[in-house]
Amino acid sequence: MTQERILVIGGGVAGMQAAAALREEGFEPFIIEKEKAAGGHVARWDRLFPTQLRAQEVIDRLSAGAEGIGSATGCEIVSVLPEADGVTAIAADGQRFEGRAAVVATGFDLFDARFKEEYGYGMYENVVTSAELERMFREGRVAMRSGEAPKRVAILHCVGSRDEKVGQNHCSKVCCITGIKQAIELTEAVPGVQVTNFYMDLRAFGNGYEELYRRSQVEHGVTYVRGRISEAGETLDKRIQLKVEDTLVGRPLRLTVDMLVLLVGMRAPGCCSSFGLPTQENGFFAPRDPYVETVASPVRGIYLAGTATGPKTIGETVNEALAVARRIKRDLAK
Length: 334
Known about the structure:
The protein has helices at residues 13-24, 55-65, 130-139, 175-189, 209-218, 271-274, 314-332, and strands spanning 5-9, 28-33, 47-48, 53-54, 70-73, 77-83, 86-91, 96-99, 101-104, 109-110, 127-129, 152-159, 194-199, 223-234, 240-246, 251-257, 259-264, 266-267, 302-304. By secondary structure, it is of the alpha/beta class. It has 2 domains: 5-108 and 268-332, FAD/NAD(P)-binding domain (3-Layer(bba) Sandwich); 113-266, FAD/NAD(P)-binding domain (3-Layer(bba) Sandwich).
């Protein structure tokens, strides 16, 4: 076994930053990524909140920091085992990777909106997810399936978050600000479009978030309605008819839009149940201590970073990746 090798499971933001930081600490990091290329979810986004920085700029910086680090792509890890002198990670195809320690940076999965049948995702052609809308932004054209630009768009918050019916009770933390960001970008991409956001509670907690929320209303004319969409139906001309209850005024609403965007939340990936590590009530990996040992798992030699332990922003993810490198150096020096 290479004594100084540290396995980094996951090649997204947390994985790339952790690998770069581990190398700076004198270790030999090795990234194992299940997809064909590193970058994670951020690599599929156009612009990022709250500054609307291009996501590719973040990926480019992280990639530059991890340049030259060994990796295996297209390789899905199914279990991580502690050993007497380190850890062993086992891939779905039987490959075994050994190291002094492992950083689990496996990220999150997006909630499958088909489980919310009342919104018609997968049945109605102009019901899309926030991830699909982001792809339209990247491609430079927002359009309905017919090719026409939408004139009226509804954005629904908390799809697959704070929802007992689908077993996703937790808040996904970034959906509110993503909905605000995407509403602004819709008005920039489609001049004259009317955008309405339907929300349970607006949680604009971060630096610049409240300012972005206010700007979306004042400068871009975005409307916000506190309420839930109870049902979505498709009209003969493929528009989406919505039944909503405005919970602020206590009355039902009906409106028809050209496109419905579902802000899908973060859910724990399947590996959280297969790795053999303790998990939290929300399904994500559990840290050793949620206050003072947030990047250490309860299992010796196995560490956690980023959204492996739950929803986080990119900045929080980067900070955890830096912290985990320092923690590993401290522990292995004992």
